[in-house]
Every structure is written in C-alpha cells, then in structure tokens.
Amino acid sequence: MKQTTVIAGLDIHTYTTEAFASSTKPILALFVLHGRTGDSGSAHVQDLITALVDAAAGHAGQKDLMVIAFDHRNHGTRLRDEVGNLDFKANPKHVHDMYSIQTGTAKDVSFVMDFLEAYLFPSGERSVAEWGVAGVSLGGHSTWIAAATDPRVKIAIPIIGCPDYLGLMVPRAEADGISVGPPHFPEGLLSLIRSEALSALPYTSKGDENPFLGKNVLVLSGGRDPVVPWSASQAFVEGLEVGTGNKEYIVVPNAGHEVTPEMVKAAVEYILRVL
C-alpha cells in the first residue's frame, strides 16, 4: 500500500504491507533512494520497493517494514535545472552538482526522520524502532553519507554507489580530459569535499570516532561498472570497520551500472534478516 505525505512541501511516499495498518509491531523504516536523472517512481526504485514489501508480507518477523521514497533535489517534482544532472560532457559544474545533490539528499533523509513519525502517527500509535537507507547510484552515494552522518541510520545498503567522492570523480574527469582544478574543481569546493570526505574519516578504527561502528552495511556493486567502478570503492569497503555491526559486500562479476536481480535478492534477504 502506498501513502503520500507532504512534509514542508516535500512529497514523502511510504509503502507498507496490507497487514501494516492493523499491526502494533515496532517499525523498521527503510529509505530507498533513486539514481541520477531518475526519480522516486523510476523502475529501479519501484522494483526494489515491490520486492521488499512483497517479501515482508510473507515474513513473520518482530518488526513491520515501511519503505520510504522521495525525489532528490533537482529531480522529479523538484527539478529546476536539467543540465545540473548531466555529466562533464554537458555540464561543467558536474562536480558541484553531484556533490551538492548527494549531500543534500542525505540531509533530507535526516530531515524526514525528524518529522515522519509526527505526521504519520500524531497520537503516538506507532513508533520507528530502526532506520535504514538503501540507494542506487547517486542514491547509493547518499546512502554512504547518511550512514556516516546520522547515528540513527543503523542499516545501509549502497547499490552501485561509492563512498569516496574524489576517488570517483577525479578519474572520471581525467577520462574526459578535464584537469582537477578551477573551474571544474574550484578550490573552495575541493576544501569542502576534503573536509567532509568519508575517505578522510577513521573508518578503519574501532574507536568512538568511527561513525560506522555497530551498523549493518551491505555493499552491492557491478564488477564491470564503467560509471561507478568497484575500484573506486574497494579500498574503503574492504577496510571498513563496523565493530559489533555487520559488513558484507557482493561484487556481481558481469554486472555493469545496473541493479541486477541478484542485487535485489541480496538486499531483500538482508532486510528480512533484521525484521
């Protein structure tokens, strides 16, 4: 079942099983974030949502699943500049736009977490026991950021996404003959990115400063992805320390920049394990 709730002008779509309305179980709320140039209605989002909800309907767990989707900034109902979603060949501000949208989306996830219960359950009828984020491509980048910046996010499933922004964008620029400097890489923007970069975090540490400790992370990547290659994420993912949490990663050998049935199956099974 789909319900749309408007929060501060933002359309928030929630998807649940038919049994959800009469249930009193705690809720696992999972965001599913779409890719660049797509929206919350894109097939790669809706297919994953359908698979998740259908699986939850037949699963007798301790929690109910609620899936959440919305349009990224400058996408779907929020589109203001089509060029801003394109790559270097059409958009000289590709580095600016990709970073601002993915970090903005992570902030939107936190914003929705702040308010969603109050809008959906104004009398305290239900509560969200656990929050998670799954995302595809651009949404996968945002998933990494949301997991690193909001302690409420306990589950992260980045799909064909990358945690190392410059590790992804610098080779992309070089492949297009673009130098890593102004105007495509302004110094002020580079300073901001480096100060916020996940690759600069002590993610291999077991100390309290590591934001991934205790979190459950499933990374799904394509072995032949030409857009977000596994090589851009590999060092970060392999070195990631989650402590008492869980870390798994699957690189589908022959997959390109796509969400394969194997990836959908892995994501669904991962969620069922924590329901």
TrEMBL record:
Entry keyword set: Hydrolase
Keyword Hydrolase appears in the UniProt entry: yes
Molecular function per GO: hydrolase activity
SUPFAM superfamilies linked: alpha/beta-Hydrolases (SSF53474)
Keyword Hydrolase: yes
Protein's name according to its UniProt entry: Alpha/Beta hydrolase protein
Organism: Mycena maculata
